[in-house]
Amino acid sequence: MDSSFFPADLILRSSAVFTSSEEEPPAAAVAVTSDRIIWVGDPADMPGELQGLDTEVRDFGDALIMPGFHDAHMHVFHSALYLSPLAERFVGENEADAVARLAPLAARRPAGSWLLTQGWRDYLWNPAGMPSKASLDAAYPDRPVAMYSGDAHTLWLNSCALERLGITDDTEPPAGGSYDRDEAGHLTGIVREAAAMELMPRIVAEFSTEELLDAYRSFERYLNEHGITGVCDVSLMAMPGLDFVRDDLYAQLEANDELTVRVSMFPTLLEDRSRLDELQAEHTGPLLQARGFKQFFDGVSSQHTAWVHDPYTNARFDGDCGRPTVGPEVMEALVAPAAAEGHAVRIHAIGDEAIHQCLDIFERHPVEDGATNHHTIEHLENFQPADIERLARAGVIASVQPRHITLDPGGPERDLGAERVPYMWPFRTLLDAGATLAFGTDSPVTDIDPLDAVYTAVTRRDADSHKPEGGWLPEEAITLAEALSAYTAGSAAAAQRAGEVGELVPGQYADLVVLSPNPFALAPEDIQQAKVRATYVGGKQVYEAE
Predict the structure, then answer these.
(1) Is residue 361 packed enough to be buried (19+ CB in 10 Å), middle (13-18) or exposed (0-12)?
(2) Which of 40, 148, 174 is nearest to 89 (CA)?
């Protein structure tokens, strides 16, 4: 311990301190100077010189002190937007209910402006079924409406929106996207995948920089209130200029000393890799950095756009196996030079064939200097059995979102069948194979609350309904300590920040959260009773419960 750090600026004490992986966290004290942890240990062994006249000392009693939660997969622009007054977020009970829920947004937004929402899921509606522009046209004939699906892969537009965007019955969609049409060949208002993603920048362009900054400030507070000290802001769209990683907004917040979350940015991997170089050159502070690339290999299972080896059980046509967003040879040509330059790549791969092909590429092209940097696969919902150990051997990080497990009850059985279901979200098997799990939420697809995600990982039950009783594939449940480690040290590894954050050890940034009651003192089904009492980022308190 460097004596130049004495005395500490801050000392936190508790009867339980989770440093990285303890199943039974011991009592400890954590000493902080500036933005770093300088000592952790039994309070009885704490050097007397650590506590000076100006040292702030906090005793949190029976609460749990642990590393701050780090969300390994988030789309911050859209998360902030949909939780702000600029837009709305809801699922709706059915198509008519979803249209009705637009009314408050229409009342507060300027006349003629876009009405933008996110969250609808047609398979959860009663009755289920894909919506169309007709219901929106009836309610809003003269105002553009864009309703983004809960999985962020499909747009539901009205006729006014289609007209404003210049989409007609004769418009051809971009590669990797589609416009749904009725039997007569007319647009239904449903726009999918790349075609939907291409339209989003034009839809959100009407929001001013100050409006967006306000949305980001509010979202930061929301993150801190939930114990989140770091996020990976990953590209939302694979097309050039559409990653929505808004470093310009972060930079303004940082300049104003308003950035209260540690942000790791992952722009889209393209043939032109200069965007990452520019971000890394421009953002070198401890709170805001760019750490690698993101790419996309497939879509989502519920829409049969995830790439699977064998046809979907409920195939919509012969050979219905989904599809890759780009061919494997194209993906490899993108990954190879990036990896050779020492850049980690994160690839969205949900279907088992997308995961398999992704591993082929990563095995051939590990990150140069892979001792500290590792490739990551995002989502990994459906494995070919042998690929679980392959992933672990290759040192590829599994970035998973526990709440995805219960988003579509019965969906895995419906789409993939009983034989493939045992290899879906296999957290226990992945850990036993030696893989690194990194937890996140894919916000705005699911809410950012880490304790809800931890609850689902530990119980394999939905955080809202607490169903199914006994858990879905309960043999894949993991322990509380393993779940917290995945949400801290595991996510730090996915952020390419292992050794900087994610553990309470000397030398790492003092990103901490205090939970009360201590979740280790609760039964698994009661984990959600734990609440955030205080949050620290770089030794600075950014939230305290009233």
Answers:
(1) buried
(2) 148
Is it the case that residue 535 has pLDDT exceeding 70?
Answer: yes
Identify the three-state secondary structure at position 5: helix
Q: What's the CA gap between 443 and 106, in Å, rounded?
A: 24
**φ/ψ bin of 227: left (φ > 0), alpha (ψ from -120 to 50), beta (otherwise):** left
CB 231 within 8 A of CB 70: yes
**Residues 6 or more apart in contact with residue 436 via CB below 8 angstroms:** 374, 395, 397, 398, 490, 493
Answer yes or no: are the C-beta atoms of 400 and 438 closer than 8 Å: yes
Residue 149 has pLDDT above 60, yes or no: yes
> What integer is the mean pLDDT of 62-87?
97
Specify whether the CB–CB gap between 496 and 264 falls below 8 A: yes
Show the beta-strand stretches assigned E in 139-279: 145-149, 154-157, 177-181, 187-192, 228-234, 262-266
Per-residue pLDDT at 193: 84
Residue with tokens 């930079």: 251
Give which of 306, 327, 330 is closest to 379, Cα–Cα. Answer: 306
Q: How confident is the model over 90-119, as a mean pLDDT?
A: 96
pTM for the model? 0.93
Say if CB 500 and CB 492 are below 8 A apart: yes
Is residue 400 a contact partner of residue 380, using CB atoms and an 8 Å limit? yes
- The helix (H) or strand (E) run that includes residue 147 is strand 145-149
d(C-alpha 483, C-alpha 428), whole Å: 10
As given in the structure block, the two tokens for residue 312 are 């979907």
Half-sphere exposure of 355 (CA within 13 A, CB side): 31
Tell me the pLDDT tens digit for each residue of 335-347.
999 999 999 999 9
Contact 346, 381 (CB under 8 A): no
Q: How far apart are CA 46 and CA 51, in angstroms?
A: 9
* Sole residue written with tokens 């747009």: 155
Give, rounded to a whole angstrom, the gap between the first and last alpha carbons of the chain: 35
Q: Is the peptide bond before 144 cis (omega within 30 degrees of 0)?
A: no
Strand pairing partners for 378? 348, 399
- Stretch 156-173: mean pLDDT: 96
pLDDT digits (tens, 9 = 90+) for 380-436: 999 999 999 999 999 999 999 999 999 999 999 999 999 999 999 999 999 999 999
Q: Per-residue confidence at 5, pLDDT binned at 50, 70, 90?
A: low
> Nearest to residue 532, comparing CAs of 546, 516, 521?
516
Find the helix packing angle between 352-364 and 387-394, rounded to 10°.
30
